[in-house]
């Protein structure tokens, strides 16, 4: 039995196995991380894909194929998901990467295998079931396809010419196969660059059946696909909730304060069990309130020694993960810091960036404001700093 990446429930070996190809560089998607590791509504694309596959087939092994440079990115994205085998190193083409994944599965020798693109996070249980049903009915190769409804034209001499669209499909993944047939078909064409596995099977003489595709099952290919994909996710998160948070810490002797994740030099520090980051505390509470999921004192009691001196980043990322665990996203947050000093204008941009980084959202979804109380009250007298925060989250 292949070694698994993480501890997993005993999965059933007679389930179809899944080869998940994640080794591409995503050049058409533009600058930044390879597209499968970029954040989509707060979660790496490949994590969304893994979760969707795990939901569709709770007992199937998943054989990832990754670029050797991406081991850490993959391990972080796959954290906590069961049944993922040790990643196989990918090749220079998609076809080479699929072959590497199939070879890694040879010892397990499943009867059926699905091959899926990491860059297709919208795979559904219905799609997977459609492919498996066709395989169980005797097909050796099945691809989900969406019938073309647009008029089609092809470049031709002197202009363009119409193409008959009847019987034409846009082909997606997961594609399903009998494992032994796909492995030998891939071995027979190794070194070529065929765009999908159905074509590999066809070259070996197998007929390819089509099951129902899903127009939402897009492959993230170009930069603009990320905008469309985020819209798809947001439209499925219709339960919009808002929470607020408020916190106060008093000053004590020291030489800096932590505010919204940034160390700000000052003539005093804030007293607290943790690092006393009043801004992140208010924000953590705002997110927990939006979820109706307790508050910071409930989850991190000041009576527990383990939270002493801890960075408040821990509290905020905990709240973020509670949103993600419910399949939601953080739509926007705002923090208002209330004090006479230190003056915060020079630090606000760094705070905005740090909060966005901790929440894994875009900076334009984070607002940091600062105000005084015109020398009135405890903040006016310079006895401490108060912060209030607001957070909007979207849940399924
Ligand atoms: N050498 C490769 C090339 C592609 N893929 C994977 O195959 C899937 C579909 O390929 P594509 O969208 O073409 O991805 P990239 O090759 O990464 O994109 P680009 O061609 O824009 O660089 C992706 O999940 C990609 O990671 C792979 O595992 N190994
Ligand atoms: C396999 C595939 O996703 C089917 O649509 C596609 O062919 C692979 O991506 P590419 O853009 O053709 O490399």
For this entry, give a set of tags.
single chain, 396 residues, alpha/beta, Spore Coat Polysaccharide Biosynthesis Protein SpsA, Chain A, 60s Ribosomal Protein L30, Chain: A, eight-stranded mixed beta sheet, 12 helices, binds cytidine-5'-triphosphate, isoprene biosynthesis
List the helices and strands and how they pair.
Blueprint: E1 17-22, E2 39-40, E3 43-44, H1 45-56, E4 62-66, H2 71-78, E5 88-89, H3 94-105, E6 112-117, H4 125-136, E7 141-147, E8 152-156, E9 159-163, E10 169-171, E11 175-178, H5 179-188, H6 197-203, E12 209-212, H7 223-235, E13 239-253, E14 256-259, E15 262-265, E16 268-270, H8 278-291, H9 296-299, H10 313-325, E17 329-338, H11 348-359, E18 366-371, H12 377-380, E19 384-395
Parallel strand pairs: 1-4, 1-6, 4-5, 7-12, 17-18
Antiparallel strand pairs: 2-3, 6-11, 7-10, 7-11, 8-9, 13-16, 13-19, 14-15, 17-19
Helix pairs in contact: 1-4, 3-5, 5-6, 8-10
Cytidine-5'-triphosphate binds next to β1 and α3.
Give a structural overview.
The protein is α/β, with parallel strands linked by helices and 396 residues long. It has two domains: 219 residues, Spore Coat Polysaccharide Biosynthesis Protein SpsA, Chain A (Alpha-Beta Complex), CATH 3.90.550; 157 residues, 2-C-methyl-D-erythritol 2,4-cyclodiphosphate synthase (60s Ribosomal Protein L30, Chain: A), CATH 3.30.1330.50. The strands form five sheets. Strands 1, 4, 5, 6, 7, 10, 11 and 12 form an eight-stranded mixed sheet that branches. The longest helix is centred in the last third of the chain and has 14 residues. The two termini are 37 Å apart. The relative contact order is 0.12. About 2% of the residues have low confidence. Bound molecules: cytidine-5'-triphosphate (CTP) and the ligand C[C@](O)(CO)[C@H](O)COP(=O)(O)O. Cytidine-5'-triphosphate binds next to strand 1 and helix 3. The ligand C[C@](O)(CO)[C@H](O)COP(=O)(O)O binds next to loops. Keywords: Isoprene biosynthesis, Lyase, Metal-binding, Multifunctional enzyme, Nucleotidyltransferase, Transferase.
């Amino acid at each position: 039995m292949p070694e698994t990446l993480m501890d997993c429930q005993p999965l059933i070996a007679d389930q179809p196995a899944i080869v998940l190809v994640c080794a591409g560089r995503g050049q058409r998607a533009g600058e930044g991380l390879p597209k499968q590791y970029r954040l989509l509504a707060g979660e790496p694309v490949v994590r969304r894909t893994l979760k969707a596959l795990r939901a569709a087939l709770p007992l199937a092994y998943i054989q990832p194929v990754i670029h050797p440079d991406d081991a850490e990115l993959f391990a972080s994205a796959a954290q906590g998901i069961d049944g993922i085998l040790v990643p196989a190193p990918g090749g220079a083409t998609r076809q080479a990467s699929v072959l590497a994944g199939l070879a890694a599965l040879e010892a397990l020798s499943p009867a059926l295998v699905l091959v899926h693109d990491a860059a297709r996070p919208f795979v559904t249980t219905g799609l997977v079931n459609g492919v498996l049903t066709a395989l169980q009915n005797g097909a050796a190769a099945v691809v989900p396809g969406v019938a073309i409804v647009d008029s089609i034209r092809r470049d031709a001499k002197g202009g363009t010419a119409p193409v008959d669209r009847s019987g034409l499909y846009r082909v997606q993944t997961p594609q399903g196969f009998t494992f032994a047939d796909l492995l030998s078909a891939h071995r027979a064409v190794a070194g070529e660059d065929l765009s999908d596995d159905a074509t590999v099977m066809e070259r070996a003489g197998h007929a390819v059946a089509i099951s129902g595709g899903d127009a939402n099952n897009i492959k993230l290919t170009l930069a603009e696909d990320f905008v469309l994909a985020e819209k798809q996710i947001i439209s499925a998160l219709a339960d919009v909730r808002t929470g607020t948070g408020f916190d106060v810490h008093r000053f004590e002797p020291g030489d800096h304060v932590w505010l919204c994740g940034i160390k700000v030099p000052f003539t005093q520090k804030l007293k607290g069990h943790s690092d006393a980051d009043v801004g992140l505390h208010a924000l953590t509470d705002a997110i927990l309130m939006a979820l109706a999921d307790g508050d910071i004192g409930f989850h991190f009691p000041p009576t527990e020694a383990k939270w002493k001196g801890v960075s408040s980043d821990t509290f905020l990322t905990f709240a973020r993960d509670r949103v993600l665990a419910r399949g939601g996203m953080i739509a926007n947050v705002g923090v208002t810091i209330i004090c006479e000093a230190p003056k915060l204008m020079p630090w606000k941009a760094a705070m905005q960036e740090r909060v966005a980084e901790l929440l894994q959202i875009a900076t334009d979804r984070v607002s940091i404001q600062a105000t005084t109380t015109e020398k009135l009250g405890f903040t006016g007298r310079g006895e401490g700093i108060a912060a209030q925060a607001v957070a909007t989250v979207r849940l399924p």
